[in-house]
Design brief:
Layout (H helix, E strand, L loop, with lengths): L7 H16 L5 H11 L11
């Protein structure tokens, strides 16, 4: 979604998430890879925690 179409509140949430992720070290490589697969339309299997 282009930024021009994103609501102000959604932009604030996205920015807050980005700042928090940077402060805490960001996503793990495994999570980042799974998200990339999801965005690309790949088959994504997610297991729930025990």
């Amino acid at each position: 979604m282009p930024a021009a179409m994103m609501s102000r509140s959604l932009m604030r949430l996205a920015r807050a998430w980005e700042l928090q992720a940077r402060a805490l070290g960001g996503l793990s490589r495994k999570t980042s890879k799974k998200l990339d697969q999801l965005v690309a339309g790949g088959n994504l299997s997610v297991r729930s925690a025990p």
